[in-house]
UniProtKB/TrEMBL annotation:
GO terms for cellular component: plasma membrane. The keyword Transmembrane helix applies. The lineage of its organism: Bacteria, Bacillati, Actinomycetota, Actinomycetes, Micromonosporales. Keywords: Membrane, Transmembrane, Transmembrane helix. Pfam families: DUF218. This is Vancomycin permeability regulator SanA. InterPro entries: Cell_Envelope_Assoc, DUF218. The chain crosses the membrane at residues 12-31. Residues 50-166 form the DUF218 domain. The keyword Cell inner membrane does not apply.
Length: 221
């Protein structure tokens, strides 16, 4: 009897493992397929009206982390070169003392970006929320999304699923932060599953709110 119970338990465990692996494979495949032809180097990415910079950690000092700094530098160069006309910085400002989007906006303006061309989304709590809000709140239809290279395919796929014509540029310079890069790369595998679930469930962002015209006004100017 114990042997039969052990066999039954092992079979159930095997089925769970197979299910988890299958879900991970399907999610990863969805991300890769939907990003085909839409990930570029900074030099080769086609121009777009808007650059969407996804948020990342801000240090306790108030300075962008190495990962976030690399994203901002790409956006700064694209804006200065006229490859984009507006930068939408989207990050976590869920607590008064922690402000990714405000930090990003100040960093760009302090380095010469015109204030009216840098718009902050303070409720970009994850990639899905940032893409959905870019489309539904800020009216973005065409954008270059900017993040690290391990994340760029997911970002492109999620933004395209939101109805934005999206190309992406992924930073590789932050690889010098080896332990953090390795951890983020591993975490990304599970994030693919969440991304597909978010897209299939059509969930609303954590905070939706009213329509904002800042991006549209900047594009008209």
């Amino acid at each position: 009897m114990r042997r039969l119970l052990r066999i039954f338990t092992l079979r159930r465990l095997l089925m769970v493992v197979i299910l988890v692996v299958s879900v991970g494979f399907v999610s990863g495949l969805w991300v890769r397929v939907n990003a085909i032809g839409h990930v570029y180097s900074e030099q080769d990415v086609p121009s777009a009206p808007v650059a969407l910079v996804l948020g990342a950690k801000v240090e306790p000092s108030g300075e962008p982390s190495g990962f976030l700094l690399a994203r901002l530098e790409i956006a700064q160069r694209l804006l200065a070169a006229g490859r984009v006309r507006v930068v939408l910085v989207s990050g976590d400002h869920g607590a008064y003392v922690y402000d990714e989007s405000g930090t990003m906006r100040r960093w760009l303006i302090d380095r010469g970006a015109p204030a009216q061309q840098v718009v902050a989304d303070h409720a970009g709590f994850d990639t899905y929320d940032s893409c959905q809000r870019a489309k539904r709140i800020f009216g973005v239809d065409h954008a270059i999304v900017i993040t690290q290279s391990y994340h760029i395919k997911r970002a492109v796929s999620v933004c395209r699923a939101a109805g934005i014509e999206t190309d992406g540029v992924g930073d590789d310079t932050a690889r010098v932060f080896t332990p953090y890069w390795r951890h983020a790369f591993i975490r990304e595998q599970g994030a693919d599953v969440k991304a597909l679930w978010d897209v299939l469930s059509h969930r609303d962002p954590v905070f939706l709110g009213r329509h904002e015209t800042d991006v549209e006004d900047a594009l008209k100017g």
